[in-house]
Here is the input.
Amino acid sequence: MKENWSYALPMLYPGKLLKRYKRFLADIELDSGEVITAHCPNTGPMTGVCHVDGRVMVSHNPSPKRKLAYTWELTEVHDTVPTWVGTNTALPNRVVKSVLAANVISELGAYSEIRPEVKYGKEGKSRIDFLLKGEDGRPIYVEVKNTTWADGTLALFPDTVTTRGQKHLQELTALLPDARAIMLYFINRGDCITFAPGDKADPVYGTLLRKAIAQGLEVLPCRFEVTPTEIRYLGLAALVA
Here is the structure.
């Protein structure tokens, strides 16, 4: 692991969450007193990280192409110690792209090529987040899953039933043993040191994940510390599946 690797965030503005509604919208009172409506990129339940009156951070991009100038980026939780959690689900793939370019994750080994959003699967209708060319010539398929749900210092995925996630596990398993298949869980908070499937939310996913691991699927639960200025890679969490 390369030391002190980090991903810089744009300028963020603090406030408190008033309400989240219609999945994509959040009313937020900025510290300036202004009340704004921000885009909420996370359309899931946001289990444990969506609290009315909780501290949040938003980015501001007043582009004429956008319906909303603000985006909800971070939320503060107090499960163990005060911790910032990333709420922008579009960000993990951008961060992982930079991580891969910098060869930060030693467990991936050496690779010479990084291709995002490559079609794969029996029907060619699915897209893998990243396809790497390993030094031995074998392809390395990397699927990224944003992970924010936690039970103390245990990170859990998923936080709701995900038929899409179940399908990804089955498609990755089908690639074995001709390719390396990797599920990269992007733990979007710095207070978790272990990882397990969220069986309470989706027991089918947990069963499929354990079965896939037994067949050779590699799991990389990557820990990231999130602050209002940057995201820093902390290494791997311990898998307790």
